[in-house]
Design a protein that fits this description.
mainly alpha; 4 helices; two-stranded parallel ribbon
C-alpha cells in the first residue's frame, strides 16, 4: 500500500501518478509472486495505491473501492477516512506553503531571489505559483 500526495494541476494527474506507482513496483510484485509460487507458500502480493492531490483532489469512487478491498466495508467509515485524508492533506499543504512564503520573504541565502532566474521561473510555472516582488 502506498499513499502519495501528487501535484494535481493537470486533469490527468491521478492517472499519471497511478502509472508511475505501477511502473515503480511492478517488477517487485512480480518477483515476490514468483518466489511465492516457486516456494508454494500460497502468498500473493498485490498493490493498492492511494493518491490525493496537494490541493485536496481525489477520485472518490476509486478511493472507496480501494478501502473496501482492504476490508473497510462500512460506508460511514470509508467516508470518514476520505474526509480525514483530504483534511490532513490540505493542512499539510497549508503548512508547507506557510514555510515557503516565509522563505520567499526572508533574506536567507537559499530563497528564490538568490537562484538563477531561469530555474525560479521554470519551477514557479511548473507548479502554477506566482512570486510576489520582494519586500524592502
Amino acid at each position: 500500500m502506498e499513499y502519495t500526495r501528487a501535484m494535481d494541476t493537470n486533469e490527468d494527474w491521478a492517472e499519471r501518478k497511478e502509472q508511475e506507482k505501477n511502473d515503480r513496483y511492478g517488477s517487485l510484485l512480480g518477483f515476490i509472486n514468483h518466489l511465492s509460487h516457486r516456494e508454494k507458500s500460497g502468498w500473493k502480493a498485490s498493490q493498492t495505491n492511494f493518491t490525493t492531490g496537494v490541493r485536496g483532489s481525489l477520485h472518490t469512487n476509486q478511493f472507496f473501492t480501494r478501502l473496501e478491498s482492504l476490508g473497510v466495508k462500512n460506508t460511514n467509515t470509508r467516508e470518514a477516512i476520505r474526509n480525514r485524508t483530504v483534511q490532513k492533506t490540505l493542512s499539510m499543504s497549508d503548512t508547507i506553503l506557510k514555510f515557503f512564503f516565509i522563505a520567499l520573504n526572508s533574506k536567507t541565502d537559499w530563497t528564490p531571489q538568490n537562484l538563477p532566474t531561469e530555474i525560479v521561473n521554470k519551477n514557479m510555472e511548473r507548479f502554477n505559483l506566482h512570486l510576489q516582488p520582494p519586500r524592502l
